[in-house]
Design brief:
The protein is α/β, with parallel strands linked by helices and about 425 residues long. About 35% of the residues lie in helices and about 20% in strands. The chain contains twelve helices and 13 strands. The protein has a five-stranded mixed sheet, sandwiched between helices. A four-stranded mixed sheet has the order 1-3-2-8, with helices on one face. Helix 2 crosses helix 4.
Length: about 425
Amino acid sequence: MKNKKIWICKSSTDDEFERVGIKFEKENIFIFFPLGYDIPSDKFPNFQRKAVIDILSTLALTKIKEYDEDYENQIGSITGFPIHAYLWILNDYISNGLYNEKEKVYMQSQRGKINWKRTFSTIPLFSDQGAVYLNPYVDKKRTIDNVITEIHALCINHSIDQIGWLFGNIEKINYDYDDKNRNYYIQILNEELRKSFNDRKKTLLKNMIQIMESEFQDGSTESVSDILTTNYSHAWEKMVDSVFGNDLINNYRPELKWVGLPEKVSNPHMRPDTIIKRKKERELIIIDSKYYKYAVIANGKLPGAEDIDKQITYGDYCSNPYNFDKPLEYDTNKVYNAFIIPYNKKDNRFNLNGNFEYIGYAESKARNKDSSETSHKKIALMLLDTKFLIDCYLQKEKANTGKLVDSIVTSLKKHI
């Protein structure tokens, strides 16, 4: 990575595959940001570095649907590349330095340096000469800690080789370790993990295990792979649900089945992306997160007919209390629907600047002829600032769900 000095930030809209992540080409490093992300200016390299680290921290979310066949179409590879472990190890190293076991271990023995404080807490025997401690506590130096420090140094150097350029001038550690002792190192780490009760140490050990078990097994510290995904839509869905959702999705899954046939439907349950429940107002909001370009480029597409009809189906199901095992706990008066798509609040053609904004709604003429509940049959289109969403997700903060819901409900009520 020593020659990798030129890095170029790009929007995924500049790439025909809509990739998100990092691509290495000779001396160039291309960083592809998600749709709608406000990329910091190259005049502020520290802001750019943080932005890249934030994006990398969300890539694992693209694997939230293990059954999804889209994963076979990944460009590059994020499988086997322990990006979260590298990021954690380097951030922790910058804050805390090289691993050093601070907790002393004591044992009862006749040999070694006596720890009188612990020894005095035991019951002695008394003789004419005074108290006699037959089994004094002595300090025991744990040689295993030296091995863990050795592994930690190796993992730090691996992390520096792979993504150290993101952290500026960070130097590798000059430490004696054997890069080919991988299986022995993994065994030591797993044994120590089973015995450890300290949360930080357990996290450190888990991340070191991930690195040791990664694809970098041949001792080549210069081996670098592209870190790319073409399925960032899964990360988008997961982040929206994490930041705004407040009820279990599995409680609202319409079931599909064949009748009179032995075959079963392969995926028998429809599954909404996000559910927001407001108990006081007795309102339920069903969110469909779409990672679409509509608010990012001029000719970007909108959710189609199938998407619209599916949301109305969810609304039909959730509006009927008899679809639920415990109708008394259901207690919902109104059901609303919304699509959420990415946009950049600092640069967009709508002249909007909020973290989330309403711009219109979809409806089905065929469905609107029904005489039943209609509040869910118009689906609001909401714009959500991508950087705002990622910041909330990484900081483990719930966004102001109330304001989002108010915007959806207030806007739709004008048309119901």
